[in-house]
Amino acid sequence: MPLILKGGPIHFGPFLVTPQVFHQTPLSIALVNLKPILPGHVLISPRRVVSRVSDLTPPETADLFLTVRRVGRMIERVYGASSLNIAIQDGAEAGQSVPHVHAHVIPRRRRDLSTTDAVYDLLDGEEGDLKRGFEGRERGETLKVDDEERVARGPEEMEAEAAMLAKEMAKEPMD
Ligand code: AMW
């Protein structure tokens, strides 16, 4: 069943992601990832499409991190994790591929990757594309997203995960 959301279409950078959104506040959105590094890897963004953390207003900045905190707590519980990576690549040279501020929230378990810090290489893998994407955009090309090694998920899988996570968010305390 499609997730019904009030308030019209929601964009993540140039992408329409309304069916992938599992939580929203007046200023922030949380969506499932097209190419998660690990199961439960989600993204939190300001609702407004701006590239850099410095573009955010103070209320957007506060709301973004409050949303990261609440969503992170839920993700850790639902995916049976005991830690989280919370990461923002703020600008192309820092590895940002989608020019819309987003915090990665990645649930972590003991020995889930070859090394604990391998997650940074995997995030880094995304950034190669992001840089190419920005450079292409400057040349007037369509924005390319993501490394080609990880497989993009289909809309049905992402919608099902978003519906499951929306239900789990409803169980979270308000604070
Ligand atoms: W960056 O390298 O900009 O810090 O991260 C971009 C993230 O956005 C990656 O995790 C990538 O998988 C994800 N992504 C790219 N396109 C979409 C999309 N259409 N919907 C959801 N996530 C996406």
Automatic annotation (TrEMBL):
CDD domains: FHIT (cd01275). It comes from Aspergillus cavernicola. InterPro entries: Bis(5'-adenosyl)-TPase_reg, FHIT, HIT-like, HIT-like_sf. This is Bis(5'-adenosyl)-triphosphatase. Keywords: Hydrolase, Nucleotide-binding. A motif (Histidine triad motif) lies at residues 100-104. PANTHER family: BIS(5'-ADENOSYL)-TRIPHOSPHATASE. Pfam families: HIT. Its cofactor is Mn(2+). Its EC number is 3.6.1.29. Residues 21-115 form the HIT domain. It catalyses: P(1),P(3)-bis(5'-adenosyl) triphosphate + H2O = AMP + ADP + 2 H(+).
